[in-house]
What we know:
The protein is α+β, with helices and mostly antiparallel strands. The protein is about 65% helix and about 15% strand.
Amino acid sequence: MAKRIVRFNEVKERTxxxxxxxxxxxxxxxxPQPIRLTERTIGFEESEIEAFIERRRATPYQPATMRRQVxxxxxxxxxxxxxxxxx
Length: 87
């Protein structure tokens, strides 16, 4: 059976992730590596994208953890602003 290659826009649609989020996850190893099709075109193996989606389905939703992450980022920004104003 031939492996199907899906283009970047289809990957964004299937996963519901933005392009920048996909690139960040590729960089950290959380997302499948792209395949260079031409000098300016990439694609992904469909089976790898489906496996990524299935792994995410198996991960329980933890809103408290997400809230702590967002609050932590907000606190860091506020501290950074405070340091800038103090200087």
